[in-house]
Write a structure and sequence with these properties.
With 147 residues, the protein is an alpha+beta fold. It has seven helices and five strands; from the N terminus they run H-H-E-E-E-H-H-H-H-H-E-E. The chain is 39% helix and 16% strand. The longest helix has 15 residues.
Length: 147
């Protein structure tokens, strides 16, 4: 078992040494405060970010990624089947996309909830690109690129 506090302290010192800054040993990611993730700093819009060690950072403190039991930096989160999030993704994967009104009625949500889910969950947390286009006679439609 590794001395976690000592390893974190060593990583923090290394992160600020001039030779390590260019190697980016730490990466900021959105903090999931509901799951109790620690917040490194607040972004100003009511959200927080936390720090994770990259593969470079873990190597600097002599921890292999498989030993750390952490997801490697740059991995993307996926959606579980049967959730509201998965239903939203399915609606947005339609060939011509969907309007806010169509999505809201299909999921039983309010329009502001749909917009918030697209901006917060799909874009920031899952890293998906939500495409918005104005269609004559239909209004603004939103869709996800082909998977």
């Amino acid at each position: 078992m590794h001395d976690v506090q000592g390893a974190l302290s060593k990583l923090y010192r290394l992160a600020w040494s001039k030779r390590m800054i260019a190697k980016r040993p730490l990466q900021e990611v959105d903090a999931n405060l509901r799951n109790g993730e620690p917040m490194w700093r607040e972004t100003g819009d009511g959200h927080g970010v936390t720090l994770i060690a990259t593969d470079t950072g873990l190597a600097a403190i002599d921890i292999e990624t498989k030993d750390a039991n952490l997801a490697p930096a740059g991995t993307t989160r996926t959606s579980r089947e049967g959730t509201k999030q998965a239903a939203l993704i399915a609606v947005l994967r339609a060939p011509y996309g969907a309007t806010i009104e169509k999505i809201a009625s299909a999921l039983g949500w309010a329009g502001h909830t749909v917009r918030g889910a697209m901006a917060g969950v799909l874009k920031r947390k899952l890293g998906l690109e939500v495409i918005s286009e104005k269609i004559e006679g239909r209004g603004r439609a939103y869709k996800l690129p082909e998977a």
